[in-house]
UniProtKB/TrEMBL annotation:
Organism from which the protein derives: Rubricella aquisinus
EC numbers: 4.1.2.21
Subunit structure: Homotrimer.
Any GO molecular function: 2-dehydro-3-deoxy-6-phosphogalactonate aldolase activity
Family: Belongs to the KHG/KDPG aldolase family.
Lineage: Bacteria, Pseudomonadati, Pseudomonadota, Alphaproteobacteria, Rhodobacterales
Recorded metabolic or biological pathway in which this protein acts: Carbohydrate acid metabolism
Name listed for the protein in its UniProt record: 2-dehydro-3-deoxyphosphogalactonate aldolase
Pfam families: Aldolase
Keywords: Carbohydrate metabolism, Lyase
NCBIfam families membership: PRK09140.1
Classification via SUPFAM superfamilies: Aldolase
Length: 202
């Protein structure tokens, strides 16, 4: 089962990368990003790709330039996440055949991202917009537009976001923070999957 969850491993190190991603994939989250402001992120992504690309999609987050997009593609990763809406980054991502998840907040940014070819919209920071804001924006977006809440969405409030029409979630500190053990992350991942399934597949 493919869930609209993206695990955000900000701060993961290359040595942690494989055991962490194995635990997360085994729990049922099969889309994982390593933000580029993590230690040696391209090394971590490449190790994850080599370990689990037959079972999961790997990507990079906090991607700000077209040069970064190309560097991420070279690892074998398949999607790009940004905190902002940069038309050049989106178009470059799509030209290279990768999935594009730009960060947006206003209706203007949402429509600009879609015009450039974004596969889904990352509402960030979702905690500031809230479910009601997403509900209002979804009402004017093209039918079928995938909207992910990132920054403020977690297992305790999936139901609120889902009721507003949210399609998926990026999960960062609720899943992983530097210094956590693999067992701790595995436990958190299982709780996130159970909450997601209860709301979206129940």
């Amino acid at each position: 089962m493919s869930r609209n969850l993206i695990a955000i491993l900000r701060g993961v190190t290359p040595d942690e990368a494989v055991p962490m991603v194995e635990a997360i994939v085994n729990a049922g989250i099969t889309r994982i990003e390593v933000p580029l402001n993590s230690p040696d992120p391209l090394v971590s992504i490449k190790r994850m790709v080599d370990a689990v690309s037959d079972r999961a999609e790997l990507g990079a987050g906090t991607v700000l330039t077209t040069k970064d997009v190309a560097a991420v593609q070279a690892t074998g990763a398949t999607f790009i996440v940004s905190p902002n809406c940069d038309s050049q980054v989106i178009r470059c991502t799509k030209t290279l055949g990768m999935g594009s998840y730009p960060g947006v907040f206003s209706p203007s940014e949402c429509f600009e991202a879609l015009k450039c070819g974004a596969d889904a919209l990352k509402i960030f920071p979702a905690s500031l917009m809230g479910p009601e804001g997403i509900k209002a924006i979804k009402a004017v977006l093209p039918a079928g537009t995938q909207v992910y809440a990132v920054g403020g969405a977690g297992p305790e409030n999936f139901a609120d976001w889902a009721a507003a029409g949210t399609d998926g979630y990026g999960i960062g500190s609720a899943l992983f923070k530097p210094g956590m053990s693999v067992d701790d992350v595995a436990t958190r991942a299982a709780r996130i999957v159970a909450a997601y399934d209860e709301v979206h597949n129940g």
